[in-house]
Amino acid sequence: MRDEWDGVVMGALARFTTGSAKLIVVVAAVLVVGGGAWAGGVTERLTTGGNDVPGSDSVQAAELLDERGGVGTPNLVVMITTDDLDGEAAVEVTERLANAIESDGGELVGDHLGPDGDALRSADERSGLVVAHLPGDDEAVQQQSARLAPILRDLAESGVEVAVGGTGPARAELITQTEEDLLRAELIAVPITFLLLLLVFRTAVAALLPLVVAVSAIAGTLIALRLLVEVTTVSVFAQNVMTALGLAMAIDFTLFLVSRYRELRPASPSSTDAVGGAVRAAGPSILFSGLTTAASLAGLLAFDTPMLRSFAYAGVAVVLVAIIGALVVLPAVMTLLGDRLDRWAVRKVAPRADLTTGRWYRLAHLVMRRPGVVALVTIAGLLLVAAPFTRIEFG
C-alpha cells in the first residue's frame, strides 16, 4: 500500500517538476530574491534574550515590582574610572551620565555618589558605578542600549574614563558580533565545503547543486522568521541553526537525487527520464528523512524557554523548505541542465548500471541478514553516547 502511494505521489511530482522546469525555476528565483530582500532585515528584530520562562516565579516577581512602581532589574551599568572619584571632574561626569540616562527614558537605580554609594565603589576608590534600568521588552532594551551606549561613552573627559556594560548593551553588541561571526564562519566554511563537494559529486556543476537547495531553504526560513517575529520572540541564534542545518540538509538531499540520477541515466532514453526516475526512487527517502528531522526538532517546542522554541521554529522551517527545494526546485534545475550536469569533472564519473555490487550493497545485505544483532549494537552505542544526559540538571 505504501509503495503504491509513493509511486503515485512521486510519479505525479516527477512529471510536474520535469514538465514545468522553466516555470518552477523562474518562480523559485523570484521568491528567493524578493522574499529574501523583504526578510533581510529580520536580524534587527531578533533578540538575544528569551531565557526567561513566561509565568515563572522570577518573571512574576519582576512584573509585580513594575506594577507597584518599583524600579525594574538593572540592565545598564556604567563605570567611571579616575584617580579622584569625588573630584569635580568625576562628579560632573557622573551627573551627566545620570541626566543622559533619564532624559532617554531610563530609570536611575543608583550611583556611587548616592546614599548607598559605598556599595557601588571599588575597594581602591578609583572606580564607581552608575546603575540604571531601561524599560521595555528585550527588543526595546537592545535598541535603546545600542543608541544610548555611544552617547554615554562620549561623556568621558580627560582623566575620567567611561565604560558601558550590563545585559542591555551586552545583548545589543552580541547581535552585532553574531552577525560578524556568522559571516566569517560562512566565508571560511563555504570554500572548504565546496572543495569537499567537488570530491563527493565529482563535477563542478553537480557540486553547485546543493547551493540551489541551501539558498532556497535559507531564504524561505528568513521569510518564516520575519513572519514569526510579528507574533512571538525569536532568538538571534536561530540564524546559526538555520544556516548550518540548511546547508547540511541541502547536501544530504542533493546527494540522494544526483546519485540515483547517475545510476539510472545509462538505461534511460533521456536525461529528463532519468531525473523523473530519480525523483520517484529517491523522493520517498528525502521526504521521510526530512520529516523525521523536522519532527525531532519540533520536540524543542515542549520547552517553555523562548530561546529553545526559536531553535525549533528555525530548524523545522529550514528542513521543510529544504524538502520542497530538493523535491521541486532541484529536479527542475537538473532537467534544464540535462547531461551538462556532469561537465567539468574533477574525478571520473562512472555510472554503475549494475546495482547488485559494491560496498554499500554488501553492507545493506549484511544488516538485513543480522537485523537483531545490528539493532542491539546500534542501541547500545546510542545509550552509551546518551549516558551523560542522565546527570543533566535543568535550571
What's the arrangement of secondary structure elements?
Elements (H helix, E strand, L loop, with lengths): L1 H18 L1 H19 L17 H11 L8 E6 L6 H16 L3 E5 L15 E7 L4 H16 L7 E5 L1 H35 L2 H25 L9 H27 L6 H28 L7 H32 L21 H11 L1 H16 L9
Antiparallel strand pairs: 1-3, 1-4, 2-3
Helix pairs in contact: 1-9, 1-10, 2-7, 2-10, 5-6, 6-7, 7-8, 7-10, 8-9, 8-10, 9-10
What does this structure look like?
By secondary structure, this protein is mainly alpha-helical. The protein is built from twelve helices and four strands; from the N terminus they run αααβαββαβααααααα. A four-stranded antiparallel β-sheet has the order 2-3-1-4. It starts with a helix and ends in a 9-residue tail after the last helix.
